[in-house]
Design goal:
The complex is a heterodimer of chains A (about 280) and B (about 300).
Chain A lengths: L14 E12 L3 E12 L3 E6 L5 H9 L7 E10 L2 E2 L5 H7 L1 E4 L11 H8 L6 H14 L1 H5 L10 H13 L5 E5 L7 H18 L2 E6 L2 H7 L2 E6 L2 E7 H6 L1 H7 L8 H10 L5
Parallel strand pairs in A: 3-8, 3-9, 6-7, 7-8
Antiparallel strand pairs in A: 1-2, 1-4, 4-5, 9-10
Helix pairs in contact in A: 3-6
Chain B lengths: L2 H32 L6 H18 L4 H24 L7 H23 L15 E3 L2 E3 L1 H20 L3 H11 L1 H6 L4 H27 L8 H12 L4 H26 L3 H16 L14
Antiparallel strand pairs in B: 1-2
Classes of the chains: A alpha/beta (about 280), B mainly alpha (about 300).
Chain lengths: ~280, ~300
C-alpha cells in the first residue's frame, strides 16, 4: 500500500495544532494511542478517519484536556496549540485559548433551552456584548435553532441537537473546532447539511476544523486532507482526493466492499496490515 | 372538631411547612447545581445556628451583626467543604458521593457535640411569643416570620437561576463533561452551590433555633428537608415550596387529630409515609425533572 503523503503541501510553521509523537495511556495500563503525529493548518479543515475504537476520540481529548476526567494521561510526545505546548493545562484554560471540542453523542444540556445552552457556554468570556453577538452568529448559521430556542434541548431532534452542540462550541469563540462523530445517528441529508454549514463557518470565520469521523464518504467531501487512524496509530495521511481514490480506503471505509461478506473483509483486513 | 380548629391547624402547618421548605431549599440548591443529594444539610443548619451563637454569645456581637457574620462564615465554610471533601469525588459514582455527605453529617454533629456540648441554648432574635390574631385564628409569630423569610429567599433564588451564573450552575448539573468541554469551571460552580446552601442553612438555623433552641436536634431537620425536597422534586425550587406547605399541613392536621387516638408520634409517621410513597409512586417528585427520553 502507498501511504506516503506525496500531495501534502509543506505547511511548516503555519499550524494551529501540532501533535508530535503523542502517546496516551488510560488508568496507567491501557495504551490507547501510540506515537500519533497530526497537524492542522491554520484556517484548514482536516478529517481524522478510522473505525470504532481506533483512538480518534482519545486523540481529541488529549488536545482538549478532557482526558484527565477519564483518567487518561499523555505519557509521551507534545501537544502544541499555535506553537505553545499546552500539555499540562486545565480544560478551561485551553477553551480560553481557543480550543473547543464538540463531544461525541452531542451531549447538549438537556434540561436547558437552546438559548440557555448558548448562554452557559459563553461563561468563559465575560462581556454581555460578545455573548449577544456570538449568539446571533450561531442563530444565523443554524436558523432552525432560533425557531426552537425556548423548548428544552432534550426534546430537539438529533440533527437539531448536533447543531446546538456545534453552536454551543462556537459561543466560546474558538480558533480550533474539533468535532467528534457529528454524523452519528443522523440521516444522510442532515449530515450533508451540517457538514456544509461547518464548511461555511470554516471559510467565513477563518476557523480551523478537525473533523473526526467514521463516515469517511461524507467527511472526505468537505475536508482538504485526511488522516487515517487504525489501532492507535496514524496509518495514512493524504489529500482528500487521493484518499477517496485509494483502494484500501474504498475497501474499508467507502463501502467499496460490496458483494463481499463481513467475514471476507475481516480476513482481508487481517492479511493486509497498515504500515508496520 | 370545629372548622376553626382545622383551619388553625392548616395555617400553622403551612407556615411551619414553609420553614421545612427553607431546609429543603439548601438541598435543592446543591442538587440543581451538581446533582448531589446533600445528606449533611441538617447538620449545616445546626452548625449555622451554633456559629450565630458563637458570634453573639461568644464574641458579644449584637444579633443583627452576628447573623450576617455567621452567614459570611458559613459561605466560606460551604466552599471549604466542597473543596476538601467533594471535589476529589467529582465524576465518581453517586453512591460514593452520597456516603461522603453522610460522613460529613456525622462529622459535623460529632464535632458540634465536642465543641458546644449537648445542652440546648436559646436563640433570641426578638420575635415575641404572643400569638398573632388573624380573625378567629391564632398564629405562631415565629412561624409567620420564618415563612416570610422563606418566600423572600425563594424569590431571590428563582431570579438567580435565570442569571448567567445560575444558568451555568444548571448546565453543570446536567452534564459535567459537556460543561468542561465548553470551558465552564465545574469545580467553582459546585463550590458556589455549597456556599449558597450553607448560607440558607444558617438562615434556617436561626429561625428554627429561635423556636426550639439550639442543640443537636436541629440536624434532624434533614428528615423533613429531604422529604420536602423529594416530594417537590429535588431540582425544583417551586416544588420545595409547595411540598413544604403540603407536608406541613398534612403533618399538623394529622397530628392534631390522630395524636389523641394514637398517643403521639403521628407527626413523624406522616413524614415517613410521604417520603416512602413519593419514592414508590413518583420518584422524581411533583415538579422534578425526569431524564428526557426521546422516542
Amino acid at each position: 500500500m502507498t501511504a506516503t503523503p506525496t500531495q501534502v503541501p509543506d505547511e511548516a510553521g503555519d499550524e494551529v495544532l501540532t501533535l508530535n509523537n503523542v502517546e496516551v495511556i488510560y488508568d496507567r495500563i491501557a495504551l490507547a494511542i501510540k506515537g500519533v503525529s497530526v497537524q492542522v493548518p491554520r484556517g484548514g479543515m482536516i478529517a481524522l478517519l478510522g473505525a470504532n475504537g481506533a483512538g480518534k476520540s482519545t486523540m481529541l481529548k488529549a488536545v482538549s484536556g478532557l482526558l484527565a476526567a477519564e483518567r487518561g494521561l499523555v505519557t509521551r510526545g507534545e501537544v502544541c496549540f499555535m506553537g505553545e505546548d499546552i500539555g499540562g493545562l486545565a480544560p478551561q484554560r485551553r477553551v480560553k485559548m481557543g480550543i473547543v471540542q464538540v463531544l461525541e453523542g452531542r451531549r447538549v444540556f438537556e434540561h436547558l433551552t437552546p438559548d440557555e445552552n448558548l448562554v452557559a457556554a459563553s461563561a468563559i468570556h465575560g462581556s454581555r456584548h460578545d455573548m449577544a453577538r456570538n449568539r446571533d452568529m450561531v442563530y444565523t448559521y443554524f436558523p432552525r435553532l432560533r425557531e426552537r430556542r425556548a423548548a428544552a434541548a432534550g426534546y430537539l431532534s438529533g440533527g437539531e441537537q448536533q447543531m446546538l452542540a456545534i453552536g454551543r462550541a462556537l459561543m466560546t469563540q474558538p480558533k480550533l473546532l474539533m468535532l467528534d462523530e457529528p454524523s452519528l445517528g443522523l440521516a444522510p441529508f442532515l449530515v450533508a447539511e451540517i457538514f456544509d454549514i461547518v464548511r461555511r463557518i470554516n471559510r467565513e470565520e477563518g476557523l480551523s476544523v478537525l473533523l473526526v469521523e467514521q463516515n469517511a464518504v461524507a467527511a472526505l467531501e468537505v475536508v482538504s486532507h485526511g488522516y487515517l487512524m487504525d489501532n492507535g496509530r496514524i496509518v495514512m495521511h493524504d489529500s482528500a482526493e487521493a484518499m477517496k481514490k485509494n483502494p484500501d480506503i474504498q475497501q474499508f471505509y467507502l463501502g467499496g466492499a460490496e458483494g463481499r461478506n463481513f467475514h471476507d473483509i475481516k480476513h482481508y483486513s487481517r492479511r493486509k496490515r497498515w504500515l508496520s | 372538631m370545629d372548622l376553626t380548629y382545622l383551619l388553625e391547624l392548616s395555617v400553622n402547618g403551612a407556615l411551619a411547612g414553609l420553614m421545612y421548605s427553607l431546609v429543603a431549599m439548601g438541598i435543592v440548591l446543591i442538587y440543581k447545581s451538581s446533582s448531589v443529594p446533600n445528606l449533611a444539610q441538617g447538620s449545616l443548619v445546626m452548625l449555622g445556628a451554633y456559629i450565630v451563637l458563637a458570634f453573639s454569645n461568644g464574641l458579644g456581637a449584637p444579633m443583627w451583626m452576628a447573623i450576617p457574620l455567621a452567614m459570611a462564615f458559613m459561605f466560606f465554610a460551604g466552599m471549604g467543604i466542597e473543596r476538601l471533601a467533594l471535589r476529589r469525588l467529582a465524576g465518581r459514582p453517586i453512591v460514593m458521593i452520597l456516603m461522603m455527605t453522610l460522613g460529613l453529617d456525622i462529622f459535623l454533629r460529632a464535632g458540634a457535640m465536642t465543641i458546644w456540648g449537648g445542652s440546648g441554648r436559646p436563640m433570641r432574635i426578638g420575635i415575641s411569643d404572643d400569638p398573632l390574631f388573624l380573625g378567629p385564628l391564632l398564629l405562631n409569630r415565629a412561624y409567620v416570620v420564618g415563612a416570610a423569610v422563606t418566600l423572600v429567599l425563594f424569590a431571590v433564588f428563582v431570579l438567580f437561576f435565570r442569571t448567567r451564573r445560575g444558568v451555568v450552575l444548571r448546565a453543570i448539573s446536567d452534564d459535567y463533561m459537556a460543561s468542561w468541554s465548553v470551558g465552564i469551571s465545574v469545580e467553582r460552580g459546585v463550590a458556589l452551590s455549597w456556599a449558597l446552601a450553607s448560607v440558607v442553612a444558617t438562615t434556617a438555623g436561626v429561625l428554627w433555633g429561635s423556636i426550639q433552641s439550639v442543640d443537636q436536634s436541629l440536624s434532624t431537620l434533614l428528615l423533613k428537608g429531604i422529604t420536602v425536597g423529594v416530594l417537590g422534586g429535588l431540582d425544583s425550587l417551586g416544588g420545595a415550596i409547595l411540598a413544604g406547605i403540603l407536608l406541613g399541613v398534612l403533618e399538623s392536621v394529622a397530628s392534631g387529630y390522630l395524636d389523641k387516638l394514637l398517643g403521639g408520634g403521628s407527626r413523624d409517621l406522616v413524614v415517613a409515609a410521604v417520603l416512602i410513597l413519593t419514592i414508590m409512586i413518583r420518584p422524581h417528585g411533583l415538579f422534578g425533572r425526569h431524564d428526557i427520553e426521546r422516542i
